[in-house]
Design brief:
Length: 238
């Protein structure tokens, strides 16, 4: 199958690891007042490095699977964040963000083709694992899918799962690390006191991705800001 130019560009972009974000993080107001908790781990070097290793593990899982929702389902179940361990979406209304010219190019749509905006908190029980922004092309989805996206809180990935889409990563940014910048080249070793733990509202990881149909047509661009609540479970024992 011959891929279109936008698809070829997206395939190449999905191989990049970009450290400088081009989208604003989810606002503190969207996370404030949630019932989730921050990591309650001891303030030790080992615990901080365990947390960093777990964040890199979650990042790797998100990078290597097409559905962030199903990846978070598995993460929630493995770390017993809730019972049942099912990720649900909580729609955030009252905000609309028209797509930029670059986003329209990435979605392969014209300047006038409709693109809708949806913003949700993704929860596992009381834990808000991420805030996800979604610009999607309604003309490439079924009527029932559009109805669900407009009237229900079902996560986007679950609504369109039957389309067998693939996920092309445009950016993946680690927003928290216990190690100070330059620790690996200054030859001073790991500091005895690392940076503080992030609170429940802090964002620790962000992804920007395009979801693409098997025929190469993009259906959605997402920006996902993951919170410290992905680590809201007891410290693992080495």
């Amino acid at each position: 199958m011959r891929l279109s130019t936008p698809t070829l560009w997206l395939t190449a972009a999905s191989m990049l690891w970009v450290q400088s974000p081009c989208h604003a993080q989810a606002s503190a107001a969207e996370l404030r007042g949630t019932a989730g908790r921050s990591p309650q781990w001891p303030d030790t070097v080992v615990a901080h490095l365990e947390a960093l290793a777990l964040l890199q593990t979650l990042n790797s899982e998100l990078l290597s699977h097409d559905s962030a929702t199903l990846t978070l389902d598995r993460w929630c179940a493995a770390h017993q964040l809730a019972s049942p361990p099912l990720v649900i979406a909580e729609k955030l209304s009252g905000v609309d963000k028209p797509p930029t010219a670059l986003q329209r190019q990435e979605l392969g749509v014209t300047a006038t083709e409709p693109v809708r905006y949806r913003r949700v908190r993704l929860r596992c029980g009381k834990q808000v694992l991420s805030v996800a922004e979604n610009w999607y092309v309604p003309g490439r989805l079924s009527l029932n899918m559009n109805r669900q996206l407009e009237t229900t809180d079902v996560p986007f990935g679950r609504v369109v799962q039957s389309l067998h889409f693939s996920r092309h990563i445009l950016e993946a940014t680690l927003l928290w690390s216990p190690l100070p910048p330059g620790w690996d080249v200054e030859h001073s070793g790991i500091p005895h006191r690392l940076l503080t733990w992030p609170d429940a509202q802090s964002q620790v990881l962000r992804h920007r991705a395009v979801l693409v149909l098997p025929d190469g047509r993009p259906i959605s661009e997402v920006v996902e800001s993951y919170t410290a609540q992905v680590l809201a479970f007891p410290e693992p024992k080495l």
